[in-house]
Amino acid sequence: MEHPGADIGTLFPILVLLAAAVITAPLARRLGLSAIVGYLAAGVAIGPWGLSIFRDPGTIIGVAELGVVMLLFLIGLELKISRLFALRRDIFGFGAGQLFLTALALGALAIPAFGLDWRGAAVAGLALAMSSTAIALQILEERGQLQDTYGQRAFAVLLFQDMAVVPLLALLPLLAPFQANDGRSLAEAATATLIGAGAIAAIVLAGRYLLNPFLRALAATGTREAMTAGALLVVLGAALAMKAAGLSMALGAFLAGVMLAESTYRHELEADIEPFRGLLLAVFFMGVGMSIDLAVVRENLLLLLAAAVVMMSVKAAIVGALFRPTCEERADALRAGAVLMPAGEFAFVLFPLGLSLGLLNASQASLLAALAALTMLFGPPLAALSERLIKRVFREAEPAPDDFSDARGSVLIIGFGRFGQVVSQFFLAQGVDVTIIDGDVEMIQSASRFGFKIYYGDGTRLDVLRAAGAGRTRLIAICVEKPEVANKIVDLVKSQFSYAKLFVRSYDRRHTLELIGKGVDYEIRETIESAVSFGSAALAAIGVDAATVDSVIEDVRTRDKDRLALQVAGGPTAGLDVLHRPKVQPEPLTGPRRAARPLNPDAEEVITRESEYSG
């Protein structure tokens, strides 16, 4: 019986895919899972084993693979030589070690578990050894640990894996068993190899000499849709050139990205490609979910569950063992292992390729794809659980808030980042007793090496403020970075320690207005003084005399102060008339009469948008 939606035409499947993405991604994030898990589940639900809205996953994956192509293009854009050089030891040390050792271990385990030969085991080991870049980076960013030492090394491992995909896609056909009746002679095979090499050389030369002039010409038109079309043309053109030469489309996109990594148009290209990449990857994962043979999963459920547990344990153990010698805390090595446990996105590219090359049979490819999907399903919640267990087991290593028994400062500084460090110098230079609290353990440890006494504590907690002596200090300086944290501390201090003077670091103009409304004694935007100094030095550098520079500084300060006063009374959009504006300059009359316009046509819009003028 044909599905009722079949008569609606091509629009119905598109609406279903969009609705699935809109529903499942936010739902998965609300449950603390990766959006990828939601896409996989949506694919299962709407695929042939669920509602049967889509009966042939191949039709979806064929188009959605362009998301993988665009992902590799964006990876190539990030591979600047300077970045690779800075992370070279982590990339080629941890990355290569993790991929080789994990692939070897998982490939050996896959032989008895799935009945593979050594060729199939190589495909399985390499595919499952890779980790999900999307899942891992999301977890690290949500924890705020991407810039930690272990986070940077985990990123280096992911970067090596992303780089390794390209040669793997090109070299995997070499594992295919040779067939005498494949219809190609040795000369034809050599010719195909030369064609592939020529296509690679053509893309490299085009990227070196043609792409930048091409993009420059498009940018000169000032037409944004032309730049978007040009970005897609570059990616898809390189991909199709590789496909025509018998190689991977992803290889072509990757090479195009590398060629444009140093281009001045790199960020524009990235911004144009990113929406297409994200949406097509979502459809790709839904297609992967559709392709999971639930009959195979049901028949081999215990095997798949056991294999998922063993696989993730092996990956976590190998990553932890590699990271442990260079991690200051053992917990960081465990965290890295937990983050890199799930299989990666490219497993769903390598398994179909292995099937098409005869390295895997259909049943083995289905089992391995289901295994990879299960690890991606279980990975994020297991990583969250492991983080809670790590914090519980290693809680003795976490510093407890200090008792502040020797804190006698007449000034309390909350936050010892770059801003707080400079502020403290003024008090220390005059011998003023200062109590400093901060919640960053690494900052406290680093500062202690230079003789600073900083107390560990959360400035948003009333008991910590009392213990730090907020009730007897003359001045409280709030130097934290996040405006919402600063506001919370301000409200706490105003309600409990109203007699202390309250000086606060402001994030931007909007935050300044909030602080003025709260009645703080003094606030300053974190960039205003550096911007004034920068501007005055720039004027002096172009020949403006010192007296005029001083006059301009005073004028800018006065106008800023006047505008703040008007904004306090009339709202954020008040006071625009006190700003300096770009002067209007008429264009030469080379044709029909034109209206005069500002030198920068976007200047008026920029100035009138508060979000763009938040200094």
Describe the structure.
The chain is mainly alpha-helical. 65% of the residues lie in helices and 5% in strands. It has 26 helices and eight strands. The chain has helices at 11-30, 35-46, 57-78, 81-86, 88-114, 118-129, 133-143, 149-171, 186-209, 211-221, 224-244, 249-259, 266-291, 294-299, 301-323, 330-339, 347-356, 362-393, 418-429, 441-448, 462-467, 483-496, 509-518, 528-541, 546-570, 603-608, and strands spanning 411-414, 434-438, 454-456, 475-478, 501-506, 522-525, 584-585, 597-598. The strands form two sheets. Strands 3-2-1-4-5-6 form a six-stranded parallel sheet, sandwiched between helices. Helix 10 (211-221) packs antiparallel against helix 11 (224-244). The protein starts with 10 loop residues before the first helix and ends in a 7-residue tail after the last helix. The model is unreliable at 179-184 and 591-614 (pLDDT under 50).
Compile the SSE list and pairings:
Blueprint: H1 11-30, H2 35-46, H3 57-78, H4 81-86, H5 88-114, H6 118-129, H7 133-143, H8 149-171, H9 186-209, H10 211-221, H11 224-244, H12 249-259, H13 266-291, H14 294-299, H15 301-323, H16 330-339, H17 347-356, H18 362-393, E1 411-414, H19 418-429, E2 434-438, H20 441-448, E3 454-456, H21 462-467, E4 475-478, H22 483-496, E5 501-506, H23 509-518, E6 522-525, H24 528-541, H25 546-570, E7 584-585, E8 597-598, H26 603-608
Parallel strand pairs: 1-2, 1-4, 2-3, 4-5, 5-6
Antiparallel strand pairs: 7-8
